[in-house]
Amino acid sequence: MKIKLLDGTIKEFNCSLTILEIAENIAISLKKNTIAAKVNGKYVPTDYIIEKDCDLELITSHHEDYLKVLNYTTAFVAGAAIESIFKDTKLAKILYKKDECEFGVTFEIEPRIGLDQLSVIQSKVMELLKNNSITWTKVLWDEIEKSEEYNEYQKYIAKEMYGTYGEVFLYKIANTKFITPHPITLNTKLIKALEIQQLSGEYWLNDAKNIMLQKVHGIVSDSQASLDEIKVSLEDRRSRDHRIINKTLNVFGIDNLVGPGLPLWMPNGTIIKEEIKRYLKEKEWEYDYIHVTTPVIGTIDLYKKSGHWDHYGEDMFQPFNGGAGNEEQFILRPMNCPHHIAVYKQEQRSYRDLPLRIAEHALQHRYESSGSLTGLERVRAMELTDSHIFVRPDQVEQEFKAIYKLVTEVLDTFKIEIDYLSLSLRDPEDKIKYYQDDKMWNEAEIALENVLKDLNLDYKKCIGEAAFYGPKLDIQIKTAQNHEITVSTIQLDFLLPKKFDVTYIDQNQEYKAPIMIHRGLIGTYERFVATLLEQTKGILPLWLAPTQVEIIPIGDETNESYANEVRNELKKHFIRTHIDNRDERLSYKIRDAQIKKIPYQLVIGETEKTNKTVTFRMYGSEEQITILLSEFVNNLINKIKLKK
Ligand code: ATP
Ligand code: ZN
Fold first, then answer.
1. Measured on CA atoms in the order 291, 293, 299, 300, is the torsion positive or negative?
2. 560/489 same-domain check
3. What is the pLDDT of residues 290-307, one digit of tens each?
4. Which ligand is nearest to the Cα of residue 387, counting in written order?
5. Ligand 1 geometric centre to CA of 486 (Å)
6. Any idea of the CA torsion for 478, 480, 481, 483, to the nearest 10 degrees?
7. What sign does the dihedral 539-541-547-549 (CA atoms) show?
8. Do residues 454 and 336 both lie within one domain?
9. How many CB atoms lie within 10 A of CB 417?
10. Which sign does the torsion angle of CA 154, 115, 232, 534 carry?
11. Are residues 488 and 445 in the same domain?
12. Which pLDDT score, from 0 to 100, does residue 436 have?
């Protein structure tokens, strides 16, 4: 049999061998270091026997899946610990979140377990690892299906595994048997340091229609030192979670009666959002965009015509009727493209009108699964910094460059670093997802690549990731939570203009179809503000801070009137202030302003009143500076203008 290794080399053997025997054959050290393997994409343990030709990846500490193996294995042992401590536990599945460096195991149990049990679970995991080994067997799906021994979750997983790989693996430790397609190492000695950390709930299959299972989370590593590092970075990340920061900054609220995933922008959040919006609209003005306002609903026929209904139907809020007894069906729009096409079509456009850049900071709705809803990062009602730009074929490359420039200028203002650019192309084999027109696709894909080459940009090509209507460039960033997100997107579309019969009159008085470019400038305000809060730890720059100056009067009451005078002067220049005239000590008030991350704290007393000065300190600094009020106001105006 022929075995193709990750580096492309091919090894030939004339009999069946286990993974470890193959590893040994390649190098003795490899036998020692291999902890699991991947055979044709399927994870297998080290004594798995290979009988025929395959692609083989040996997983050692250098392999990208090393931590994955460690985490899934520990999750499995944690499941075994839970099952052995608590009677009638139904283990469901094991999980590993790479971004969060964390494993988890979900299970059903009655009564539910409490936080005080975590240390008991941790001890049991240690004991199991010390005294037991992990073994495994293949089991037949027919047997599992009929057997009473497996709970419904395990049967579900077995069926899926059988469907994908044609084999089902059952792992054992002590008295626990567990089915999983995830990688498990038989080498339990690798697990040198671990911590069971949290307890939470998770719907089975992340679907709110299903039962809420309990979930135990933890972290693991192959040395105490690296576990300590993981802990420090996890703590930093948790403290940056925008949902935690929101508790002090009060940016948004969620009310389950209004609906999960339907955020309420509170006054502070509204200021942040509106300031960003004002800036973006100014930038769009600079780049000759025009702004429109269109309704958040449309007829279902509009979205059937656009193709969104066929492609995204399941992710939309479902159609509703208009008035009672009225058959007309509407939907809450999940995207704004068809509305902007309708705006374009209000007039007959000529080649001189193009590029026509229609922008809208537009509300849209998507029915995201309830399990995926996360603060402001993943919501069901969102406002997209959207634009649809109609161009002639000869304008595509130039316009694309202009959009890219606009996007990078904006990201720079927010000090957001691009992680990488992803060029999403179609999968020519996928005849279902993609509109079939090879010429169109080829032209569009070549045009995009030309621009990227011209601009000397590095990018990753992602085959099969294009939208159904055309190729796109996604600008990817890494959030402080280590999540990879698309912050901006530029998408070419040759299809929608044709579907909607969009035209312009060219120089020869002929009707032609323009090309449409969909552009998301910074994505949605919801996800962007979540990202910003996490990146800045809530310490927003002056221009975005909801309260920019906290005024703290001290001494007798006459100073309060000067405090009001200072406030009015700042207010004249649209600088946002708050006077703290509570009956508290100065140090308390200053600490409170620090907690709220207010950029400037002014202390106003007798001297300030007499000299028309202010004494200020900046967030995070102990230094107190006294300057003329007029000078202070000018400094702030300048800083705000420079988006500092
Ligand atoms: P995802 O893969 O995260 O679901 P998507 O690829 O479907 O997003 P697009 O359709 O390209 O997203 O939407 C454009 C932008 O809208 C994204 O870059 C993101 O900023 C934002 N976005 C999408 N879905 C959500 C959501 N549920 N909540 C908040 N923002 C969202
Ligand atoms: Zn669009």
1. positive
2. no
3. 999 999 999 999 999 998
4. 2
5. 8
6. -10
7. positive
8. yes
9. 10
10. positive
11. yes
12. 74
> Is 257 within a domain?
no
Tokens encoding 21 = 């025997």
Give me the mean pLDDT over the 544-559 stretch.
Answer: 91
State the ipTM, two decimals. 0.96
Q: Which residues form the pocket of ligand 1, taking CB atoms under 6 Å from any ligand atom?
A: 366, 368, 378-379, 382, 384, 486, 489, 520, 523-524, 526-527
Residue 176: give the domain boundaries: 66-240
Asked if 433 and 523 sit in the same domain, the reply is: yes
Domain tally, the chain: 4
Residue 47 to residue 176: CA distance in whole angstroms: 20
Listed residues 472, 502, 535: the one ending a domain: 535
Partners of 350 in the beta sheet? 505
Q: What is the dihedral of CA 23, 27, 33, 39, to 10 degrees?
A: -30
253 domain-assigned:
no
Closest CA to 290 of 361, 224, 229, 221: 361
DSSP, res 166: S
Based on the number of CB atoms within 10 Å of its own CB, is 279 exposed (0-12), middle (13-18) or buried (19 or more)?
middle
Atom of ligand 1 nearest to the CA of 335: 10
41 in the same domain as 71: no
Q: Mark which of 18, 39, 59 sits at the end of a domain.
A: 59
Copy the structure tokens of residue 305.
């015509």
Identify whether residues 14 and 111 lie together within a single domain: no
| Residue 513 DSSP code | P
Instruction: Check the annotation: does 388 bind a ligand.
Output: yes
373, 474, 527: which to mutate for ligand 1, most atoms within 8 A of CB?
Answer: 527
- Residue 594 sits at the vertex; the CA angle it makes with 591 and 598, to the nearest 5 degrees, is 140
Q: Which ligand is nearest to the CA of 260?
A: 1
Reading the block at residue 634, the tokens are 């000018």
pLDDT of residue 433: 78
Query: Within this chain, do residues 452 and 315 fall inside the same structural domain, yes or no?
Result: yes
User: Distance (Å, rounded) from C-alpha 291 to C-alpha 634?
Assistant: 32
**Residue 117 to residue 214: CA distance in whole angstroms:** 13
